[in-house]
Amino acid sequence: MREDLLHFVWKYKKLPLQELVTNQKESLVIVDTGLHNHLSGPDFFNAKIRIGGQLWAGNVEVHINASDWYAHHHEEDTNYDNIILHVVWYDDMEIYRKDRTIIPTLELRKYVSEDLLVNYRRLFDKRSTKFINCENDISNIDGFTLGNWLERLYIERLEQKSTLVQSLLEDSKNDWEKVTFNLLLKNFGLNINGQSFLSIAQALDFSIVRKLRGNTHQLESVLFGLGGLLDHQDSMDGYLIALREEYTYLRTKFGLVQESVQSPEYFKLRPSNFPTLRLSQIANLYERHENLFQKLMTANDLEELYTIFEVSASRYWDDHFTFGKVSKKSTKKLTRPFIDLLIMNTVLPLKFCYGRHRGKDVITAIFKIIAQIKKEDNAVLKKFNVLGLEMKTAFDSQAVLQLYKAYCTKNKCLQCVIGSSLLHGNI
């Protein structure tokens, strides 16, 4: 037995409502189950319950065993002084308020149907290895229910990504251009170098970027220099020497400090994702665009965004991936799949936060853009495809990734529309 099932039973009144009696032999009528609280404190706020003909208003606490009240030391916590009902699976002992009056108890195991328990056991059956708990049923959920759930999941994903945006905004004193630079640099680094690139951005006052943005060579020298990519290089490569000299001058001029910077990695990276190329590309992006944030916010079509990100690394990198080592010649431009990632992880969360900051509804515009981007393809999404969950665009794949990471992997099935529908018997 899990406590989340008890929350589910109480919240959705999966009980014979006309037959409820407390363990103190008083009739019980649920007027309002209350507001489900997922944070600390009582499990349901502001419930309304009629016990023995008397209407009570207050909070409800849910436990597997009644004795968990004392195991969790609720008797010492003033947040639990206003508990009007204790909902439990096993009533193994009486629970008292501070004034020594008994807290009424509802023992759920007397009332929960066997059908619901069978569905619950089936959902959480651990006898066989499963990818997700509901893998035998997910393909049966109706399209309308799934579509609404995916919309909520994608917005939830935007909310999660906006946390970093809000943090950067506070640190920058509401400088949206600086936030854009920091977030772009982080996402240019992808998973392996994301934190490293962000540390470079945070070590660099954005006023310096504004001054250097028109000179790619200077901005590259600062980004490479702060990242330690100019250190420990014995090559006599002319481009490296010029960058190193430029960085030495600018480091002194602007008082640049590398101590807090995490050096980028090359290990396990494809050459196209080497930090040398990515830092050069972002330097060229800023050389090309002044007021980049405003351009990104006013672009409401995918093709407009593709045009903004139509940049390449500096010409030196046409035949190099690292300093001093010549490679086959090719222009190192941003690819469409990489731009898609920048749009999903940088532009759309920025639009979401900026719209909320200005009190404007931008969800429709965001949905329009994300629905034009091709769906992602990875091992997790392939498994959902096998289960019959069809994904057509990045909107679908982003929502499914949120489903998997926030619900499936955490066994939060009863907070998920699919799991909840299964227990309700709707699929």
Question: How is this fold's topology laid out?
Answer:
Elements (H helix, E strand, L loop, with lengths): L2 H9 L16 E5 L2 E2 L7 E8 L2 E12 L2 H4 L11 E8 L14 E3 L6 H10 L19 H29 L4 H13 L1 H13 L3 H7 L3 H11 L11 H17 L20 H14 L3 H7 L3 H7 L11 E3 L2 E2 L9 H22 L5 H8 L8 H8 L7 H13 L10 H8 L3
Parallel strand pairs: 4-5, 5-6
Antiparallel strand pairs: 1-3, 2-3, 3-4, 7-8
Pfam families: DUF2851
Protein name: DUF2851 family protein
Organism: Maribacter polysiphoniae
Tags for this entry?
alpha/beta; 427 residues; elongated; two-stranded antiparallel ribbon; six-stranded mixed β-sheet
Molecular shape: elongated
Let me know the number of strands: 8
- pLDDT average, as an integer? 93
Quaternary organization? single chain
Sheet/helix structural class: alpha/beta
Q: Tell me the Rg in angstroms.
A: 28 Å
Helicity range of the residues? 40-55%
Helical run tally: 17
Order of helices and strands: HEEEEHEEHHHHHHHHHHEEHHHHH
Number of domains: 3
Distance between the ends: 22 Å
Please indicate the percent range of residues in DSSP E strands (runs of 2 or more): 5-15%
Low-confidence stretches are none
Biggest pleated sheet: 6 strands, mixed
What do you see in this structure?
- InterPro entries: DUF2851 (IPR021272).
- It holds the Pfam family DUF2851.
- The chain has 427 residues and is an alpha/beta fold.
- The chain has 17 helices and 8 strands.
- It has helices at 3-11, 68-71, 114-123, 143-171, 176-188, 190-202, 206-212, 216-226, 238-254, 275-288, 292-298, 302-308, 336-357, 363-370, 379-386, 394-406, 417-424; strands at 28-32, 35-36, 44-51, 54-65, 83-90, 105-107, 320-322, 325-326.
- A hairpin with a 2-residue loop joins strand 7 (320-322) and strand 8 (325-326).
